[in-house]
């Protein structure tokens, strides 16, 4: 999704901004641009496609200056063209970059047109910069003019604005889209994501809803939504390794798949003892664990799939009803809240617009409390939820979520066991057994990764496929959904997933010799039923890719390509057996030559509806 970088320094900021944009590439974008503010005015370069195309323009025609703003655009209003790329201007001296969506842009555009403003792009952003320009006609103070203009806007935004005047400063604001301020030594920055600024600072201030900030070389002044000056804490970025470094790997996605043993261990650390879940991992007040009578999980995409797995665990271990819903649906419907329901959100980024809107709606309703399972400690979701369990996966750069998913599952299993134990639904012996199993998770994932070479070989068979069907049963059904999502996201192969028992109720009609059917068949209680479903496929000439453990007693046969997966305790199967599917989609994408880390049309952090 769109990314913002802004800088004000005593040195030329062009390189800082371009490097910042490169660091934001992982979020997904289709064009980019930089505006540099110097003694001759505000000048910009924009380019469609990769940030490298923008760098080439700077190489050919350098722009130097000590104040600048930059942007990667993910098209919403208007095609990904150079004209629609940010920064947008009003006149020659005022430029803006913007993330989010201005919902009343049509109305504002018409009003501005009647006042003589000429629009050069199809974007909603251009209305903001003309509004600021219009305010400047009666309000000479740039900061105040920006504040005045913001009052007309409906929707979500993070903006950074520069004006070529005597007062050297940047003005930025957020409402509904994230924005951080980076603090340097006699230089300061703004960005939509702290990763964009790690090459220049590790000190960050996170802006809150409705904040407007004036950034100069010497300082930062934050005005809250009531226009009162606020001091906000400075956070020091504490990742030991810069996540934007791919290390020995060709793609971030592969690096992140291989990081899973380490980050799952980090997710477990301090949350489980030798034989029980440590309930204080939910914060000082964990009384909700005893009082909860229902759980409602809300999330999007891969996080939603993690929630679907958790439903099986919560109902099975804690014997409590659990419902799971995509956030974009929840936010717009009338909901009935059963007594003592825990509202649980899942999000890698903690900035997904639909999930945030769902949380805000839930806070108006009669839930027991809200718990966020999230990977980004500084995110809006974490700040706005009553309780938090961090997944500790470290920054995830690849658009296709991998380590964020398995750490979400780990955190969800911790939560399910904690609820079950506190509700008295789980004996101490059973809890000790489960926790014991969890201790071996990192080692199991390490083992699962050893199948990489075998899976790479299998992936070559997908080079010319256009469709695929994933099957699973029980908690492996959401894993099938996740496998299908991974494959379509990065290899652009149309993939669907079904609970295997649904096959004969429709999808069986699709099965022929061209349709690969991928099935994860751990040796669990559903094995015999799943084996019969596979027979139904084989009988119709379908090509079967079976991932099963030794005990499932399956093997290569005509039309059956068998890959052995590790035998693990049933409760851990969803976490361990998603790994072969991640590897499969990765290798298929490499075979097909797609952009693995930044698949077309997708964004890492979906900050608009
Ligand atoms: O940051 P979130 O977990 O809230 O993001 C939700 C989805 O946008 C995300 O999981 C998406 O489906 C991923 N690209 C999946 O790989």
Automatic annotation (TrEMBL):
Principal place of residence: cytoplasm
Localization, UniProt: Cytoplasm
Active-site annotation: 2 (nucleophile), 604 (for fru-6p isomerization activity)
GO molecular function: carbohydrate derivative binding; glutamine-fructose-6-phosphate transaminase (isomerizing) activity
Entry keywords, A to Z: Aminotransferase, Cytoplasm, Glutamine amidotransferase, Repeat, Transferase
Biological processes annotated in GO: amino sugar biosynthetic process; carbohydrate metabolic process; fructose 6-phosphate metabolic process; protein N-linked glycosylation; UDP-N-acetylglucosamine metabolic process
Domain SIS, first and last residues per copy: 284-425, 458-599
GO CC field: cytosol
Pfam families: GATase_6, SIS
Domain of life: Bacteria
Residues in Glutamine amidotransferase type-2 domain copies: 2-218
Main enzyme class: transferase
EC number(s) given by UniProt: 2.6.1.16
Keyword Cell inner membrane set for record: no
Keyword Cytoplasm: yes
SUPFAM superfamilies given in the database record: N-terminal nucleophile aminohydrolases (Ntn hydrolases), SIS domain
Assembly and binders: Homodimer.
HAMAP family listed in its UniProt record: GlmS (MF_00164)
Function: Catalyzes the first step in hexosamine metabolism, converting fructose-6P into glucosamine-6P using glutamine as a nitrogen source.
NCBIfam families for the chain: glmS, PRK00331.1
Name of protein: Glutamine--fructose-6-phosphate aminotransferase [isomerizing]
Organism encoding this protein: Marinomonas balearica
């Amino acid at each position: 999704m769109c990314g913002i970088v802004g800088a004000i320094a005593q040195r030329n900021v062009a390189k800082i901004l371009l490097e910042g944009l490169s660091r934001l590439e992982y979020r997904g974008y289709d064009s980019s641009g930089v505006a540099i503010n110097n003694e001759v005015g505000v000048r910009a370069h924009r380019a469609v496609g990769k940030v490298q195309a923008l760098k080439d323009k700077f190489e050919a025609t350098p722009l130097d200056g000590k104040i600048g703003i930059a942007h990667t655009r993910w098209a919403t209003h208007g095609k990904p063209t150079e004209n629609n790329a940010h920064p947008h201007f009003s006149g020659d001296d005022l430029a803006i970059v913007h993330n989010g969506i201005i919902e009343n842009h049509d109305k504002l555009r018409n009003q501005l047109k009647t006042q003589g403003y000429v629009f050069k792009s199809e974007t909603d952003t251009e209305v903001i910069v003309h509004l600021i320009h219009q305010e400047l006609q009666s309000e000479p103070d740039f900061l105040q003019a920006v504040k005045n203009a913001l009052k007309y806007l409906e929707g979500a935004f993070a903006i950074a604005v520069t004006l070529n005047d005597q007062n050297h400063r940047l003005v930025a604001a957020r409402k509904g889209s994230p924005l951080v301020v980076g603090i340097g030594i006699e230089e300061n920055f703004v960005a939509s994501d702290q990763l964009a600024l790690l090459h220049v600072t590790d000190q960050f201030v996170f802006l809150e809803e409705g904040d407007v900030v004036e950034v100069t070389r010497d300082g930062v002044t934050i005005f809250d939504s009531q226009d009162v000056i606020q001091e906000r804490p400075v956070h020091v970025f504490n990742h030991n390794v810069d996540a934007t470094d791919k290390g020995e790997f060709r793609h971030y996605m592969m690096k992140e798949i291989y990081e899973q043993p380490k980050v799952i261990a980090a997710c477990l650390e301090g949350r489980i003892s030798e034989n029980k879940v440590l309930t204080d991992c939910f914060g000082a007040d964990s009384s909700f664990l005893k009082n909860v009578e229902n759980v409602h999980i809300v999330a999007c995409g891969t996080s939603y799939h993690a929630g679907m797995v958790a439903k099986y665990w919560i109902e099975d271990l804690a014997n409590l009803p659990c419902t799971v819903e995509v956030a974009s649906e929840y936010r717009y419907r009338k909901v009935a809240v059963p007594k003592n329901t825990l509202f649980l959100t899942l999000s890698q980024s903690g900035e997904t617009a639909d999930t945030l809107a769902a949380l805000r709606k839930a806070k108006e309703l009669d839930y027991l409390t809200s718990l966020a399972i999230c990977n980004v400690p500084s995110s809006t979701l974490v700040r706005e939820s009553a309780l938090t369990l961090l997944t500790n996966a470290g920054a995830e750069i690849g658009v296709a979520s991998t380590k964020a998913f398995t750490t979400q599952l780990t955190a969800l299993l911790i939560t399910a066991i904690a609820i079950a134990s506190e509700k008295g639904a789980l004996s101490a012996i059973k809890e000790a057994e489960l926790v014991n199993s969890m201790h071996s998770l990192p080692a199991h994932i390490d083992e699962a990764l050893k199948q990489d070479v075998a899976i790479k070989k299998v992936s070559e068979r997908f080079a010319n496929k256009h469709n695929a069907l994933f099957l699973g049963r029980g908690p492996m059904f959401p894993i099938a959904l996740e496998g299908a999502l991974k494959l379509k996201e990065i290899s652009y192969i149309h993939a669907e997933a079904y609970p295997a028992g649904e096959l004969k109720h429709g999808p069986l009609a699709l099965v022929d010799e061209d349709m690969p059917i991928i099935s994860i068949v751990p040796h669990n209680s559903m094995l015999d039923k799943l084996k019969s479903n596979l027979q139904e496929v084989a009988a119709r000439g379908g090509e079967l890719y079976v991932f099963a453990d030794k005990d499932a007693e399956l093997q290569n046969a005509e039309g059956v390509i068998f890959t052995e997966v590790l035998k693990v305790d049933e409760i851990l199967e969803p976490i361990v057996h998603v790994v072969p599917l991640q590897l499969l989609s990765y290798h298929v994408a490499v075979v097909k030559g797609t952009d693995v880390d930044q698949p077309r049309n997708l964004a890492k952090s979906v900050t608009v509806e």
